[in-house]
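User: Thanks for the earlier help. One more: DAPLE protein. Can you show the sequence and predicted structure together?

Assistant: Of course, both are below.
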Amino acid sequence: DRDTDKKRIEELLEENMVLEIAQKQSMNESAHLGWELEQLSKSTDLADTRKSFVFELNECASSRILKLEKDNQSLQNTIQELRDASLTSRESSLKFVELEKENQQLSKKIEKLQNQIEKEKQSNQDLETLSEELIKDKEQLQVVMETQKADTDRQVQ
């Protein structure tokens, strides 16, 4: 039973490491999205709106990641406590079941966060496309205005 428990602890540690890597990747992706939005906002009149959107996006992602990191740290502390304490086989089995459930919940949260990041990426691409279209429309309107002004000036003369 103890060998089985030790193997299970090792498996849970590996899962936690995978979750930590996924969290770091999510943080990196979120930071990159924020950077992309900042770069995009510099080139348009919608800079203030986008900056607040970037800030909210980064804050939301950061808070979720921090929560997941806290949960992960809690799981690691529990695993360490299980190692240090000599629990009976029954008690440790119950703890492992509980840890498995928490790990599954963390995995689901990370998956949801990754899905949300994908949705936000798509939203950012949509915003970029819209921004480009608005810039083109603005340029076309300026050309039309200049043409009309020239026509008006000729008519006045």
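User: Great, one quick takeaway?

Assistant: The chain is about 95% helix and 0% strand.
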